[in-house]
Amino acid sequence: MAGRRERCSWCGVKLVVPAEAQTIQCGSCHRVTRVNQPSINFNSLIQATHNSINHAVSRLGTLMVNAAASPSSSTGTGWCSGAPAAACGYYNPSPPPPCQPSWPSVPKPLMPPSAYGRKRALLCGVSYHGRSYNLKGTVNDVNCMKYFLVDRRGFPADSILMLTEYEADPYRIPTKQNIRMALQWLVQGCRSGDSLVFHFSGHGSTQPDYSMDEIDGSDETLCPVDFETQGMILDDEINATIVRPLPHGAKLHAIIDACHSGTVLDLPFLCRMNREGCYVWEDHGRWSSVYKGTSGGLSVSISACDDHQTSSDTTAFSGDTSTGALTYSFIQAVENDRGLTYGYLLNAMRQIIREGRSGIRLKGPIAALVNKVFGTEFLQEPQLTSSEKFDIYSKQFVL
Q: pTM, whole model, 2 decimals?
């Protein structure tokens, strides 16, 4: 089911209503219509079309201040043609050729207001629209995650910041500068008792580790929409921005649906688990001369795959609608068991992905090679990293 249809009670326009939604905002008149609540069907949410859902998202005016300066015409964030070598793990140190800007330029990062409530989340879905390496499921991922957090986990709707390429507001497009600003927003004014979520669905990559703090000699990265011209976002920067400032009593959960994302938050401890569920904590912090932990809070990252693996953008789980395997398996596992621990969550996600591996399409140009060498076996195992070690089978997962 692709989402039921209701008419706007104000202007009569037909709207696509996500599963279990009680109200929906019209994309034409921007007024809210109360709709009847159907029986629960989580898959209908995933299959709802993203164009209709995006119009229902609350405006970001309450989340980010207006630009204090006009955009500079000298800092274009455009696209170059051709598939990027860096999009799925092949680092190209040479700069790309110049290209004409297609996105509005962005001014210096702004410092947003300091208080946004006890729960808040940053959701980034990067589709790389119009490129040969585009992803079809990323916007579906962030729409589903927003619904999950607001309707199922009690996050205030106005404390959710969404960045996608389909936004009219130029500050809601997932450029490198905008993502940096949004990461600062996520932790600004954070205090004990706060629960933060960072969800990213898009391309991930690696590049040589020049700071010499990585076991494998590579930094993990996230690819914003303009990474060809502006560069990728390194794990070192992500850690410094949202991990290190986390105060005592606060917690951060990162759900990263991207290739090579196992240690993309650069957290000190990696939970190394085998297929039988046995695990050990690997200490990655000892390799770095820079502190990679928090300021007393708990930071946990649940990522799509190990640093050397690729992740998927697939229709294997929800019919004709593309989703990220990590995002789908995460929401499905939590919905199936409200009282699960981190260990059972990780095992459940891996099992869901293994069962749905047939028909999975890898994110990136190496898909044909992987499928040729490994056949239908899907090389993606969700990973858990943390700012501290704990018993994963006794510590309950709570957002």
A: 0.69
